[in-house]
Specification:
29% of the residues lie in helices and 28% in strands. By secondary structure, the protein is α+β, with helices and mostly antiparallel strands. A six-stranded mixed β-sheet has the order 1-3-2-10-9-8, with helices on both faces. Helix 5 (130-141) crosses helix 6.
Length: 398
């Protein structure tokens, strides 16, 4: 027996897993030999947050039970509401009878108990509290049903084609009831949350904390422990959310940032709670080992004024919408990246912020992305008097 174990170990050391050098690693057979990352979970995906590029996929569009990773969308809408000024972190939230009745993961909020939005986010992010999730849904939309409509609308906006929500918590979810998502869709909503609302990491990376229940019975302290074990040790971890039920098995969306790379690893329907963490970590490790991000800050470019037909003024200043980034999944030479500026044939009127052109990026002849060029100022349509004055100006200049 000892000889067999020794021989197996020797084979493992001699033949490590081959690293993929292409643009995407993929496996559809759980544990398939020679895959970039061996995944036993039913579905998984790894994407880069800056670009949204898929680095690894396994059954990425398979519709599965999401359990509490449903709350990623709930948290996204909460932070959307904060950003829009509809609520603030200091606002009080009163717990309804319905919210307090939630089972599963909870912090045992009592009917008519009040907590701040900040505390509720803490409860949802760290302890995956169903009661807090429902209380926040009612705070924002008046009822969980109305909030679920918002969740499904947001899912459409994000291009989540294999998702439908029936509740805001993931509790007692079932595909037959119409509550489902896919690994890729979970990655899309995770990207929205972590990239658009990075302050979520202030909550999702906390290992242990506590809240104070304030009820008619007095004040009691309640401890919170993060359900995402990766926050304890993984370098660069930024979140994000776990989920598990008997139907969903074990799910995890894990996010991490290093050297400008923002990686999002989603594992769904893992066979046990240890596997979801091990395989999510393996995906993140693979991404950080094999990917790098090219970023263009336009330091080498001069932006000449753009001519506007029949415009006052006749030329306007322009600028790129934002920095261009692209994730490479193998070694690359930045000198081989080519960019071409292309302007539209624009006639006035033009408003500040209008798209008037683009920068096209290619690598070894293949397009890898583009960046819109925007107008920095308005240009009104020239009228008869404007044209007359312009003609006189040109005449006297001669």
């Amino acid at each position: 027996m000892k000889k067999l174990i020794w021989f197996t170990t020797l084979l493992f050391l001699m033949f490590p897993l081959a690293a993929a050098t292409g643009s995407r690693a993929e496996t559809t057979d759980a544990g398939a030999s020679g895959s970039a990352v061996n995944i036993s979970a039913k579905a998984a995906v790894l994407i880069e947050g800056n670009t949204g590029e898929i680095i690894f996929e396994k059954n990425k569009d398979t519709e599965l039970v999401p359990a509490s990773i449903t709350k990623i969308m709930t948290l996204t809408l909460i932070f959307d509401a904060i950003e829009q000024g509809k609520i603030s972190l200091e606002d009080s939230v009163t717990v309804s009878e319905y919210a307090a009745s939630m089972g599963g993961s909870q912090v045992f909020l009592e009917p008519q108990e009040t907590q701040t939005v900040n505390t509720m986010i803490k409860c949802i992010s760290i302890a995956s509290a169903n009661d807090a999730a429902v209380a926040m849904a009612e705070k924002i939309a008046g009822s969980e049903q109305n909030f679920v409509k918002m969740m499904n609308q947001k899912a459409k906006e994000l291009g989540m084609k294999h998702t439908q929500f029936k509740n805001c918590s993931g509790l007692d979810d079932d595909i037959k009831s119409g509550h489902f998502s896919s690994a890729y869709d979970v990655a899309l909503m995770s990207r929205e949350l972590i990239m658009e609302h990075p302050q979520i990491s202030d909550y999702s990376t906390v290992w242990m904390d506590s809240i104070t229940h304030k009820t008619k019975k007095g004040e009691t302290e309640f401890g919170l422990t993060n359900t995402n074990k990766l926050v304890r040790f993984y370098d660069g971890i930024t979140g994000l959310k776990t989920g598990s039920t008997s139907k969903a098995k074990y799910c995890l969306s894990a996010t991490a940032r290093r050297d400008g790379l923002n990686l999002i690893a989603v594992v769904m329907a893992a066979p046990d709670h240890k596997v979801r963490f091990t395989e999510a970590q393996a995906l993140l490790d693979y991404g950080f080992a094999n990917c790098s991000t090219y970023e263009d800050d336009y330091a080498d470019m001069k932006w000449e004024p753009m001519r506007i037909k029949n415009g006052i003024p006749s030329e306007i200043a322009v600028y790129p919408k934002t920095k261009f980034t692209h994730t490479f999944t193998s070694e690359y030479n930045a000198a081989d990246i080519k960019k071409m500026v292309s302007y539209k044939d624009v006639t006035a009127p033009v408003k500040n912020g209008d798209e008037v052109g683009s920068i096209i990026y290619t690598y070894h002849g293949a397009e890898i992305g583009s960046m819109p060029i925007l107008a920095r100022q308005d240009a009104k349509e020239a009228g008869y008097v404007d044209m007359l004055l312009l003609s006189l100006k040109k005449m006297f200049m001669l």
